[in-house]
Amino acid sequence: MSAEAFVKAAENRRTIYKLGKNAPVSDAKIEELVNAAILNVPSSFNTQSTRLVVLLKEEHERLWDITASTFEGLVATGAVPEETFKNQTLPKIQMFKAAYGTILFYEDPAHIKGFQEKFAAFKDHFEPWADHSNAMHQYFLWTALESVGFGANLQHYNPLINAPVAEQWKLPTDWRLVAQMVFGSPEAPAGEKAQKPIEERVKIFGKQ
Ligand SMILES: Cc1cc2nc3c(=O)[nH]c(=O)nc-3n(C[C@H](O)[C@H](O)[C@H](O)COP(=O)(O)O)c2cc1C
């Protein structure tokens, strides 16, 4: 692949909130992309601690129903004001539910522990490095999904939903949920994005 094609794919990756259920590719293609992320994204010391859970169609809708009921529980205890839930949280959750799928990005701490013991000098680095690698999986899939015609956005309802989600899909309870990527047919363009000056953000030394 040319560098230009790679940059085009990066430019095409944007946050798209309004998503629908018309998948531009088959579920098998989605699976292929997810497997490609797992196989090709690097991890520190090759720990391979990232875990991906893909929820499609009804399973995806169940995730957002679980998120809504979790918030209803918080409203009942007074932790979240009912107005905030009704006017802000619920409309957002309904918008996510209208999409085609969600990818849950996890870290399995069991695969980090051994490295922390073996390389004690780097002990405190393994968790942030695991998050870096997890984020690379997110970026890979965000870009890949949008390159095949989906739109996507990244959400963080963890840790609120961790326990009911683990229970629903029988996932190991020690897996740490890092992010949720909602994807579906793009139903509205991305918003405007302001860019800070490149000169403030990039320094090059030794350029011809
Ligand atoms: C690490 C990270 C965390 C983010 N968390 C959220 C989030 O919780 N909710 C959300 O709506 N967008 C989230 N975003 C999306 C950013 O707001 C968005 O990427 C940024 O405004 C740039 O817009 P673009 O994605 O269209 O390029 C996150 C992005 C990154 C990289």
Topology:
Blueprint: H1 3-12, E1 19-20, H2 27-40, E2 50-56, H3 58-77, H4 82-97, E3 101-107, H5 110-118, H6 126-147, E4 151-155, H7 162-168, E5 176-186, H8 198-201
Antiparallel strand pairs: 1-5, 2-3, 3-5, 4-5
The protein binds flavin mononucleotide (FMN).
Flavin mononucleotide binds at residues 14-15, 153-156, 190, 193.
Description of the structure:
- Helices cover 49% and strands 15% of the residues.
- The chain has 208 residues and is α+β, with helices and mostly antiparallel strands.
- It has a single domain (16-188), classed as NADH Oxidase, CATH 3.40.109.
- Flavin mononucleotide (FMN) binds at residues 14-15, 153-156, 190, 193.
Structure at a glance:
With 208 residues, the protein is of the alpha+beta class. 49% of the residues lie in helices and 15% in strands.
CATH architecture heading: 3-Layer(aba) Sandwich
Q: Give the percentage of residues in beta strands.
A: 15-25%
Distance between the termini: 26 Å
Q: Main sheet?
A: 5 strands, antiparallel
Average pLDDT metric: 97
Tally of helical runs: 8
What is the string of SSEs from the N terminus onward? HEHEHHEHHEHEH
Bound molecules: flavin mononucleotide
User: What is the CATH superfamily classification?
Assistant: NADH Oxidase
CATH class: Alpha Beta
**Count of DSSP strands:** 5
The number of domains is 1
Coarse morphology: globular
Give the C-alpha Rg.
19 Å
- Structural class of the secondary elements? alpha+beta
